[in-house]
UniProtKB/TrEMBL annotation, chain A:
Residue ranges of the TM segments: 29-57, 104-125, 137-157, 186-213, 234-255, 293-316
SUPFAM superfamilies: MetI-like (SSF161098)
Protein name: Carbohydrate ABC transporter membrane protein 1, CUT1 family
Organism: Limimaricola pyoseonensis
Membrane protein topology class: Multi-pass membrane protein
Annotated compartments: Cell membrane
GO cellular component, one term: plasma membrane
Cited PROSITE patterns: ABC_TM1
UniProtKB/TrEMBL annotation, chain B:
Matching InterPro entries: MetI-like, MetI-like_sf
Keywords from the named record: Cell membrane, Membrane, Transmembrane, Transmembrane helix, Transport
Keyword Transport among UniProt keywords: yes
Lineage: Bacteria, Pseudomonadati, Pseudomonadota, Alphaproteobacteria, Rhodobacterales
Name this protein carries in UniProt: Carbohydrate ABC transporter membrane protein 2, CUT1 family
Native source species: Limimaricola pyoseonensis
Topology relative to the membrane: Multi-pass membrane protein
Family from the record: Belongs to the binding-protein-dependent transport system permease family.
Alphabetized Gene3D superfamilies for the sequence: MetI-like
Amino acid sequence: MLTVLISRPLRLIDWPLSALQRRLGTTGVAWAFLLPNLVLFGLFAFLPLILNVVYALTGGDQIMLEDRRFVGADNFARLSSCENYLDPNSCEKDLFWRAVHNTLIFVTLQVGLMVGFSLLTAIILNRDIRARGFFRSVFFFPVLLSPVVVALVWKWILQRDGVLNAGLDALGFETFNWLLHANWAFGWSIFLSVWAHMGFYTLILLAGLQAIPQDVYEAARMDAASPWRMFRRITLPLLMPTMLVVLVLALIKGVQTFDEVYAFTGGGPGSATTLMIQYIYETGFGGMPRLFGLASAASILVAVVLVALTALQLWANRRNVNG
Amino acid sequence: MGKVLGFLTRTRGRGGRLHWTDWASYAYLGLGVALMFGPVVWLLLSSFKTEAELARFPPRLLPHAQEMMTLPGHDDPLPMFVVTDGPLAGEQVAQVRRIGLASQVVRPEAPDEIIKIDISQREPVEEIRFAWENYTGLFGEFDFMRYLWNSTFITLTATAIMLLVNAMAAFALSKYRFRGRGVVLALVIGVLMIPQTVVLVPLFLIVSKLGMYNSLWGVIIPGAATPTGVFLLRQYMLTIPDEILDAARMDKASEWKIFWRIVLPLSAPALAVLAILAIMWRWNDFLWPLIVLSENRNFTLQLALNTFQGQLSTDWSSLLAMTVVTLLPIACVFMFLQKYIATGIASTGGK
């Protein structure tokens, strides 16, 4: 069906393309097939990469490059001018440092909890249980939901007259306006993103667990090894390469968290849940003046972190394949 | 009963009874089902509640609404109450109108005979009723249909373009040996490292310069060539034997014909996986549309949801229904194509 849909209209352009092929030769045809992709990559991936540097080195609130003046490393200097890096209030761009702090804490807790719960879930799913396929898909289900929907689902539960407060009320506790308190809003943001993404990592870890050969366990059982010892001495070491991949992937995604937290708290209360990408978005597009240079400088800093993590990922992948 | 329990607690492998660790596992998984499905089910149930029912605290599980009855001599359906006190105690009455603290009611048997009772003497008669009007109202709304159309158009067009462009590139990279192939492959890997999130400002400039700002095409085109797609398809096309292609070349088939008559149909499973992933990504896309689409009439469902939920007085009844409509296509995809998604995501490492 799908291929019929695609191939019917394509038949119409066969003749001019055959003529083209006679002129280009086989190598030329290969490049012709690559052309649309390369144009798109060039325009929307490589060109932006270079222009990003241009923006970071120029100032002003104009988007057109000819209207921007060269300021050198001024944007980076402004972002990094800080009396005490542990206290965002002492920095010139306090919101940037607030976002850096928030992102660091967010990523640490989120990745830690996510890998922990994914591992636990994967180990349980790897046991001899009934309806494994069903349970696996249950944990996977939220991965498919859009970030805005995830945010709304939990907002509806946590709102002042929501079902969580009703439960607390019924148990005799005081009701609480969860998203108006900085720490609770932050905690729930972490919870929500773990909820939304852990199924994905569970899937990868489960595949890793199932790849461990059974005879290793059988040999250990012959030697009367305890389950705990088998877990420590067989499962964990053999799962390590997969764990590494999962950890790096989770870090890469964690640093880029934006959608669900933005839709959930809007970065608030105050700037308690403002993360890096939200800072970039708001600096460049959120309000006036649009400080494109500052936004670009900040995104270059994020890009450096991501490239380092991706290099780590490629290395981990290679180890995983060879190991 | 004992037999059933015995059957349920028998483990598959060892034939023994459930160990305590098995109980713990099932308890954990049960909790997982509640935690993963519960919130979405709660949203679904809430979306069928009337505005009055939504404002109720504590909330009830199932949507309730007051029973209405049409009586002769009255044009509109009348709300039903049960009388708690006084001479009519225990009887069901229909309220004609309410004046201050007094309520004018009639008995269904005698719809003309108006009786006055105190409002503290009556309680509404409620039944479980699904407020479909939340949904029908939504589909009658011009703006909503517009968002739905925008989302659908972006998703389908972007997926089609992406499949074609990426399949062409994957074909060239898997079935031809030519100078510069290694460079192109390395560039594709390079693109993998640069997510859209870190080049927002220059991307915005390019899209504006191309006249695609505030246009649906500005959302569709920039993401059309994905390294993930090229990789997925190339891996698959490498498994197609070159002999088939050579045989076609003997028969004087053009390279283009080889591509669309042989390689594309043979790659159908990989194309299907990529199509599902692309539909998911595009339907759920948020940050880039948020930047490109500035006018309300160009919003996608995701943007509209985010805008409405941020408003001061949120109209939860239509917002919840809209959320359900937004998650419905994804939920359907999940139910029918779950296996493909799992393999697709596992083999590409997400996005």
